[in-house]
Amino acid sequence: MSYGPNDVVSTRQSHLTALLLGPAVELRREGESLVVAGEVVEIRLAPAESVEGWIREIRQGIVVDESVVPTFFAPALGALIREKLVGCVPVGWGRAAGRADTDPQPDPDGGEKFARAYLDVCDEWAKSVFLSPFWTAFHAGTMPSWQVFTFLAQLYFRTAGADTHNLAAVERCRDGLIRPHLERHYREELGHATILREGLLACGRGGEEALAAGPQPAMRAFIDSMVVAASEPLRYLGCYGVFHAPWTVRTESDLMAQFEHFTGMYPFAGKAFAAVCSHARLDYALGHEDVVLVRLAREHGALALDAAGVLSALQGARTAAHGLRAVFDGLQGDEHDHGRQRKHTAITATV
Ligand SMILES: [Fe+2]
Ligand SMILES: [Fe+2]
Fold first, then answer.
1. Ligand 1 mean position to 134 CA, how many Å?
2. What distance in angstroms lies between residue 283's CA and the mean position of ligand 2's atoms?
3. Is pLDDT of 140 > 60?
4. How many Å apart are CA 219 and CA 162, to the nearest integer?
């Protein structure tokens, strides 16, 4: 039996055991056990008296505890623990959070360690988005036109919704280091959805009807979750490592080749795909593929951090991956088989 990184990963380092649950993991109670069900593996946690507590603890997907269960290993979490991620934070955030001088000494390389480990974790979790059966059908090139247009329309609603949560993030941010980045992104991103809307309208009736149908419930829920995350700057910034995953593949020519391929499969939606590509290139030119959390970590070095800040960022990433997965599952509906598709695309890197 193998354990997929999007299921349950855990590792032990002397006194510390951490358990990270991938964003697609479901929790349920079965008799006296808590069942943690992932894409590839299921585990049961006992004893019974701890089940309710476990459910509360791991609802957010991340547990750091001395008494956790088995010892699985996954590269992403391995990096997290090995690099003592829960001990690094960019300089300035600690002061903003009112940290005491007696707190642990900073790791001089902590910013870079944080950046790489965080991006690795986000890449792992973003994979769960592309495990949705939607992508199997989409990449097969046989998806009906109404479904392709519905998908493209959801990208429009997602981008339009970004204006809402980007503004909320600015208005609620009290961190002087983070706020200018949020303001800049809000200003630069504002109105980009129009590009996608015009592309859909240029496709004629199919695009018009998909726009008129409005956002699907999972997309509404996703935008709502981003508005909620906007109340916590680190949680909010933490989401973006997932949107821009994978961090190792990020060139404009890759983007263009990808959308040309999509247009080849679905020529009736060519103008809409071209619009998505134009938007992606515009964001690329604006540097939006640059993850702010990572930039701050690299620019400001590291300082000992309370675990809450790092966990907040990771919880944001997990929430984002979970929400996007639900969007694509919603697009596919229930009628398709649940074949697995691990192909990464940059479709989420367009906000
Ligand atoms: Fe953007
Ligand atoms: Fe944009």
1. 24
2. 5
3. yes
4. 11
